[in-house]
């Protein structure tokens, strides 16, 4: 309210104080309205705090029974993590797989000779090919660093270059492909090859390749050989390309039973014109037993070189290649043996045998290869598997293999439940339950020890709790909520383990998990849950894990929808409070209406008070003016009387 000032009017009658005293008394109802509005706002804030706390509790409950519940999560462990790791999806099965890593996939990475610091790269267009993709670099000419920067600008995701200063006077340029796999070799066009030869990054190849196309076929039951008789030098490798054709199995038709011996017709006796025939001979034939069908056999161990067995073949109709590194062969392999004798209905054809240097790029080879483009190679169940990168997700269903390096023999990959995540989510559920009970206790009780017991409160949270202490004391809504929550916690729920596991206290969760002490623990009396972690760990490692999942959420009628369990029950009950149009929303809406109505009342009363204050100031101003006039008149009369004397 604005004050009214009347110039020329003094305050010797203390009219300002009188007006203030009157207005203070008049403002008492206004102060009560403002206090009431503040009380409504505090209640609204408290309801919103409860709403957020229930929401967090519902989230923790849903997490234990919903679609993304941790009981479906699996983790993969490796017996040689430096060679092979794995991640398991929800489609994986709990099992142990044996995988041997022969080699990790790598990319081409070539270094140049040591070049002088002022080495100049001529102007031109330099083209690089990585697999089926090309990187074209237009360069105006310049030093090695500028050339490397130009390559990096154009080669995003495919090609990279760097320059290393190996001495004070020289530099080495390194160009590497960013895509692994034998099919992604780094190739140079003519102009780029000429530059690479000049830089000493490439050199003319010194080894010729060797190739045979025998098209040698081993029919079922046959054995064949192919002469190789070629020396291996340097880093050469041998590859055998073959096809497998599974022939249809012919239906077995057993032979007809034998007819038995064939006997001549019996002779008769003739006497005096009368002929008497002998009876036909009877031969007893044993019961007919048809011969068994010819045996069916199958073998995947087909190839060997000079008596050394190669990897087993796939049993499917396919064309495949076996690649043998230099360390897997003698210096002079002589013969490839094809042993198809163990197969009844499988035809094997060798189409090509090649000896090549994997580092050769057309008519040149890298002079300083830091690494060469190669596939990852693993063996699983004796079958060799090749892939162009080190992430393999199509060999074991639901599992992605991450290849790091060659392994020392087979690596065991163990797939098991993610018990640590399950435990953490259960602990989070208990924690959010206790936080909800804490909020209820604070708002329904005036005992400050409730706040003092909470060790995890921040200073701001502690102050808010003190402001809300006892704000809903006597409100039956909160008592019903608390009582129902405590009842749901101790209720038994049906699981596949029956009486072995049907309650939370059987997995170490209760209001007294640590046992009884010597005195009364107020925290336990307030209903907070405790966790016996040792007991929880023990149960999680047992065969009761499926029952623990059902304890929190179970489909009782087979309709694929969870309809029982402590997590489900908690979520369903508390949804009544937090859902749209639910109890809390209704309470908050009602408080908003009260706040709005109170604001209207406050505004109306403030306007009335302002008018009244203005009226008082005018009235008291007029009174002071009248008194002042009377005093002046009195002085004037006195002066007149004095002058007449």
UniProtKB/TrEMBL annotation:
Residues 11-108 form the Flagellar hook-associated protein 2 N-terminal domain. One of its GO terms (biological process) is cell adhesion. It comes from the Bacteria. Its main location: other. Residues 248-270 are annotated as: Disordered. One of its GO terms (cellular component) is bacterial-type flagellum filament cap. Keywords: Bacterial flagellum, Cell projection, Cilium, Coiled coil, Flagellum, Periplasm. It is found in: Bacterial flagellum; Periplasm; Periplasmic flagellum. It holds the Pfam family FliD_N. Residues 588-622 form a coiled coil. Residues 373-632 form the Flagellar hook-associated protein 2 C-terminal domain. Residues 254-264 have a biased composition (Pro residues). Belongs to the FliD family. Required for morphogenesis and for the elongation of the flagellar filament by facilitating polymerization of the flagellin monomers at the tip of growing filament. Forms a capping structure, which prevents flagellin subunits (transported through the central channel of the flagellum) from leaking out without polymerization at the distal end. Homopentamer. This is Flagellar hook-associated protein 2.
């Amino acid at each position: 309210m604005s004050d009214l000032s009347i110039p020329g009017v003094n305050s010797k009658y203390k009219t300002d104080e009188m007006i203030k005293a009157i207005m203070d008394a008049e403002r008492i109802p206004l102060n009560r309205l403002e206090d009431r509005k503040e009380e409504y706002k505090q209640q609204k804030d408290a309801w919103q705090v409860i709403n957020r706390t229930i929401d967090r509790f519902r989230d923790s409950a849903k997490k234990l029974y919903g679609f993304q519940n941790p009981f479906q999560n699996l983790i993969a462990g490796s017996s040689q993590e430096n060679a092979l790791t794995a991640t398991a999806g929800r489609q994986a099965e709990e099992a142990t797989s044996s995988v041997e890593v022969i080699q990790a996939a790598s990319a081409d990475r070539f270094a140049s000779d040591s070049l002088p610091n002022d080495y100049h790269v001529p102007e031109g267009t330099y083209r690089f090919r990585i697999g089926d993709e090309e990187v074209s670099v237009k360069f105006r000419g310049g030093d090695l660093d500028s050339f490397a920067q130009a390559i990096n600008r154009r080669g995003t995701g495919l090609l990279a270059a760097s320059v290393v200063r190996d001495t004070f006077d020289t530099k080495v340029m390194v160009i590497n492909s960013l895509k692994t796999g034998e099919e992604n070799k780094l190739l140079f066009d003519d102009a780029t090859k000429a530059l690479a030869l000049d830089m000493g990054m490439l050199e003319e190849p010194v080894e010729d390749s060797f190739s045979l196309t025998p098209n040698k076929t081993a029919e079922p039951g046959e054995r064949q050989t192919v002469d190789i008789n070629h020396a291996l030098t340097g880093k050469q490798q041998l590859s055998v390309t073959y096809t497998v054709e599974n022939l249809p199995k012919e239906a077995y038709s057993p032979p007809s039973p034998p007819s038995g011996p064939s006997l001549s017709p019996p002779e008769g006796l003739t006497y005096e014109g009368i002929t008497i025939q002998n009876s036909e001979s009877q031969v007893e034939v044993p019961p007919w037993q048809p011969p068994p069908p010819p045996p069916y056999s199958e073998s995947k161990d087909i190839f060997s070189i000079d008596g050394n067995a190669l990897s087993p073949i796939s049993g499917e109709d396919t064309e495949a290649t076996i690649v043998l590194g230099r360390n897997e062969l003698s210096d002079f392999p002589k013969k490839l043996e094809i042993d198809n004798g163990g197969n009844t209905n499988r035809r094997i054809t060798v189409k090509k045998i090649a000896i090549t240097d994997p580092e050769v790029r057309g008519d040149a080879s890298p002079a300083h290869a830091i690494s060469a483009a190669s596939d990852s190679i693993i063996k699983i169940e004796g079958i060799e598997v090749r892939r162009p990168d080190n992430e393999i997700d199509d060999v074991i269903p639901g599992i992605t293999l991450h290849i790091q390096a060659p392994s020392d023999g087979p690596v065991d990959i163990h797939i098991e439940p993610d018990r640590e995540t399950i435990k953490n989510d259960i602990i989070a559920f208990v924690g959010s339950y206790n936080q909800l009970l804490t909020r209820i206790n604070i708002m329904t009780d005036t005992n400050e020890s409730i706040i003092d017991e909470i060790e995890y409160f921040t200073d701001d949270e502690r102050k808010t709790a003190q402001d809300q202490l006892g704000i809903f004391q006597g409100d039956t809504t909160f008592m019903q909520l608390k009582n129902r929550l405590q009842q749901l916690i101790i209720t038994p729920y049906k699981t596949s383990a029956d009486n072995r596991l049907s309650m939370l206290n059987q997995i170490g969760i209760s209001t007294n998990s640590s046992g009884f002490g010597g005195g009364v623990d107020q925290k336990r009396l307030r209903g907070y849950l405790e966790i016996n972690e040792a007991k929880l760990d023990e149960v999680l490692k047992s065969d009761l894990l499926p029952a623990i999942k059902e304890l929190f959420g179970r489909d009782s009628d087979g309709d694929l929808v969870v309809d029982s369990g402590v997590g489900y029950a908690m979520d369903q009950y508390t949804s009544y409070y937090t859902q749209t149009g639910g109890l809390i929303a209704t309470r908050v809406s009602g408080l908003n209406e009260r706040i709005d109505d109170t604001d209207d009342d406050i505004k109306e009363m403030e306007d009335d008070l302002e008018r009244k204050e203005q009226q008082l100031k005018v009235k008291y101003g007029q009174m002071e003016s009248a008194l002042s006039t009377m005093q002046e008149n009195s002085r004037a009369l006195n002066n007149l009387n004095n002058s007449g004397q």
